[in-house]
Design a protein that fits this description.
The chain folds into two domains: about 1-140, Winged helix-like DNA-binding domain superfamily/Winged helix DNA-binding domain (Arc Repressor Mutant, subunit A, Orthogonal Bundle), CATH 1.10.10; about 145-285, Clp, N-terminal domain (Double Clp-N motif, Orthogonal Bundle), CATH 1.10.1780.10. It is built from 15 helices and three strands. It has helices at about 5-15, 15-30, 35-45, 45-60, 80-95, 100-115, 125-140, 150-170, 175-185, 190-195, 200-210, 225-240, 250-260, 265-270, 275-285; strands at about 35, 65-70, 70-75. A hairpin with a 2-residue loop joins strand 2 (about 65-70) and strand 3. Helix 9 packs antiparallel against helix 11 (about 200-210), helix 12 (about 225-240) packs across helix 13 and helix 13 (about 250-260) runs antiparallel to helix 15 (about 275-285). It is elongated, with a radius of gyration of 21 Å.
């Protein structure tokens, strides 16, 4: 719960209708951004009031600002929003042991209640409005169905997989990027099993680049390949078969290994790994 105070401040920054409206407009314009003048035309609020709201959002790192000659351009900070969503889903939407979840809720509610009380009293409308904002963002980052059941580490692995697609300028996320994401996350069960088996992140990246090289640009929305979608579906099934109420990095790795035909599994075999043995090692780590 070390992040509770931080995200309570972020929640409070969004705890007024004008700021939520600003964020909606900036997400709609993403990645181009908007000037203060463009925002003012849309919102029809005094310039001094708009500046106050923008500064509050900037302080909480929800927006970034750039100067272009005489104009100030504001942009939605997708990274901060992704981190906020990760915290929200991991703490509130994913089933955890009751005592842990109740403690998380109580601590978060206390932080939010205390901070929001100092704001405008608009916080009771926050969650419905945030749901709308979440829906907007989900469409842009192309997250898989069932995202709300993914653990924080699994979500982070998927974001890192998307970052790897951007690095290689590819137009998709495949099983190979998912493998990179699982290794780059570094602390989940998948990363632990892979590292123990001698798999190195740099070696995986090099093997993937030798296979598929660089692309020509990444779209704003990065879709999953059909094989990656199948891998995610297998991960969900594996979690269900194991009677787990969540989907963690271990289930994502099982998805890659059980599917077995994607480039992620092929690269592991090229590096000298036995995928069947690795699958058993993942299962052993869950007991």
């Amino acid at each position: 719960m070390n992040n509770s105070a931080r995200y309570a401040d972020v929640f409070a920054a969004l705890g007024s209708e004008p700021r939520l409206d600003i964020m909606r407009l900036l997400f709609a314009a993403h990645p181009q951004g908007m000037t203060v003048g463009q925002l003012q035309i849309q919102l029809q609020i005094p310039n001094s009031t708009l500046s106050h709201h923008l500064e509050k959002l900037r302080v909480e790192d929800l927006v970034t600002v750039q100067r272009d000659r005489q104009f100030l351009w504001y942009f939605a900070n997708v990274e901060t929003t992704e981190a906020l969503l990760t915290f929200l889903y991991n703490g509130c939407a994913i089933r955890q042991p009751a005592s842990t979840q109740e403690q998380a809720y109580q601590a978060l509610e206390l932080e939010v209640e205390s901070t929001a009380a100092q704001e405008s009293g608009m916080f009771e409308n926050f969650l419905p409005a945030l749901q709308s904002l979440i829906g907007n963002l989900f469409g842009r980052v192309a997250l898989p169905v069932g995202f709300e059941r993914f653990t924080q580490k699994a979500i982070q692995a998927i974001f890192l997989a998307q970052n790897e697609s951007r690095r290689l300028q590819h137009q998709y996320v495949g099983t190979e990027q998912l493998l990179v994401g699982l290794l780059a996350e570094g602390t989940g069960i998948a990363a632990q099993v892979l590292t123990a088996a001698g798999v190195r992140l740099d070696a995986v990246k090099q093997a993937i680049e030798r296979q598929i090289g660089q692309g020509r640009g990444t779209p704003t929305e990065i879709p999953f390949t059909p094989r990656a979608k199948t891998t995610l579906e297998i991960a969900v099934k594996q979690a269900r078969q194991l009677e787990h109420s969540y989907i963690g990095t271990e289930h994502l790795l099982l998805g890659i290994l059980v599917e077995g035909q994607g480039l992620g599994a092929i690269v592991l075999e090229q590096l000298g790994l036995d995928c069947k043995l690795l699958e058993q090692q993942v299962r052993d780590a869950l007991h």
